[in-house]
Amino acid sequence: MSAEAQQFIASGVADAIGTITLTSAARRNALSHGMMDAISTALLDFQTQDVRVAIIQAEPGAKVWSSGHDIGELPVGGLDPLRYADPLEHTLRAIRRFPGPVIAKVSGSVWGGAFDLVLSCDLVVADPSASFAITPVNLGVPYNTTGLLHFMGRLRLNVIKELFFTAAPAGAAQALEWGIINWLVPAGEIDAFTGDLARRMAAKAPLAMAVIKEQLRVLSDEVPIAAQTFERLQDMRRMVYDSADFREGIAAFREKRAPQFTGR
Ligand code: LCV
Known about the structure:
Elements: E1 9-14, E2 17-22, H1 33-48, E3 53-58, E4 64-66, H2 87-97, E5 102-106, E6 109-111, H3 113-120, E7 123-126, E8 131-133, H4 136-139, H5 145-152, H6 157-166, E9 170-171, H7 172-178, E10 183-184, H8 190-202, H9 206-221, H10 227-241, H11 244-254
Parallel strand pairs: 2-3, 3-5, 4-6, 5-7, 6-8, 7-10
Antiparallel strand pairs: 1-2, 8-9
Helix pairs in contact: 1-2, 2-3
This protein binds ligand LCV.
């Protein structure tokens, strides 16, 4: 792993199971371009080492699993903040296309784009300290349509709307009830539980597993919409990311104050 990547993650392989640990605690594991590139590269490296199952985790005892997209790297002033080529979107695609199960092992709080990353993993195992918040309305960000599809592929519409419209963290028990997580496990048992789950899947037929995962991705991600509809939605998103409210949301975070949104 490059010295650059080591600023953001640690990774290792044992018994055909690859583990990526987010280690940028000082910035609450914000999903910076550097961290996203490191995760995408680690997933590619796993494929050269016959890794069958991957686990993405924070460091033991982390209070924040990830604080989401690095707000300082969100482009302000006429550029789509969540465009297709954004490193975070590239990493989400890398997770969804990894030819084997990717498990998100979650302790601590998950924010914004990190929630999308967790839902892009195939399974989620969490301990009682976990919480999940999706936050575009805190910043005035026009979430991307592909990202909304990620949520629709996992959660009920009324739950998605409550999560997006309140930006309130869902605690671990609520996350289990809403289907955000597969398993809620005591903190002292989550490592053993997740390792056992990974080993059981790693022992199964990898070719069948990889093809079934890709079939499910295509069936859930590749939803056709009319070109005109997509362009209309993009125009609506452009109105949002060109708005004074978006600039205010970013400025308020930077100045550590509450935003004052005006609807313009
Ligand atoms: C840059 C950060 C971040 C960060 N970026 O520690 O979903 S969308 O559409 O909204 C999408 C665009 C997205 O994902 O947006 C990001 C959404 N994330 C958030 O809204 C969470 C922002 N962070 C926080 O609310 C707090 O940092 C939490 C509650 C996560 C942790 O609070 P805590 O008091 O433990 P600090 O806030 O003191 O953060 C420590 C340092 O990390 C920076 C933060 O600015 C601070 O840096 P300084 O010491 O230089 O002030 N930081 C945290 N999150 N997403 N930088």
